[in-house]
Amino acid sequence: MKKPVISIIIIILNLAVLGYMYTQSGESDVFSPRNPVIQEGAKVNSAIINGEVYRLLTSIFIHLSIIHILMNMFILWQLGSVSEMIWNKFSFILIYFGSGLIASLTSFAFSKYPSAGASGAVFGLAGALLSVKYFTRDGEIPFPKQAIGSIGVFVLYNIIFGLSRKGIDNSAHIGGLVSGAIIGYALLPGRNPVFRVILLGAAAGIGYFLYMTGMARFV
Q1: Which end of the chain, N or C, is less surrounded by CB atoms within 10 Å?
Q2: In the predicted model, what is the mean pLDDT of residues 150-172?
Q3: So what's the pLDDT on residue 164?
Q4: How many independent structural domains does the chain possess?
Q5: What pLDDT band is residue 167 in, cutting at 50, 70 and 90?
């Protein structure tokens, strides 16, 4: 079985950021909003409007509780292991970070609250895998059938849980899921190059629209 090298690297980076958060926490709780890492890296609409657009990506490496990071890293390992059997390393990176970015942009456009976490990017992997399951011919792309159940449960649970509780960034989850499906399908082996460019262009256009929506809404 192919080792999920990129997934492992991303997990290590997330854990490294958590370790750095501990070194910067001082006397406050590591997950306190006063932690400089959270202050400087989380998705905060006012800061993005003032030019700190890097937060759209740095926020996907910052987590707000131990349960938060453990859940995201566990699902990243599961979905990443399957995804890296289907897409090459470069495509996997584009799916993960592209859907993570669009997830942050969706949150920027529709949620006024600060947020952080890898769940939008992880939802992107789920969306990419669902696109393989439902938009390709049977047998065209190798896909472990047992994976579909865990993906469906993961997606439905998080969306329903997000609708039932405050503080869950459902907009980012949905943005990651949809963009992951678009980018993942575009990058599948054997796609028509023109169709691939159209889909990737559509994803970029959606990201730009979300950015301009957020800028107009929160200024």
Answers
A1: N
A2: 75
A3: 65
A4: 1
A5: low
> Whole-angstrom Cα distance, residue 104 to residue 206?
12
41-79 residue pLDDT tens: 999 999 999 999 999 999 999 999 998 899 899 999 989
Which of the following is catalytic: 83, 104, 131, 173? 173
Rounded CA separation 93/87 (Å): 9
Point out the catalytic residue in the list 119, 131, 171, 179: 119
- The H-or-E segment that residue 167 falls in is none
What CATH code is carried by the domain that includes residue 194? 1.20.1540.10
Beta bridge partners of residue 115, listed in sequence order: 43
pLDDT category at 162 given cuts 50, 70, 90 is: low
**CA angle at residue 125 from 122 to 129, to 5 degrees?**
145
Domain that holds residue 12: 5-218
Q: Is the pLDDT of residue 219 over 70?
A: no
In residues, how long is the chain? 219
Active site residue 173: yes
Residues 6+ apart with CB under 8 A from 183: 94, 95, 98, 99, 124, 128, 199, 200, 203
Report the percentage of the chain scoring pLDDT > 90.
73
Q: What angle do CA 14, 43, 171 make, to 5 degrees?
A: 95
DSSP-based three-state secondary structure for 85: helix
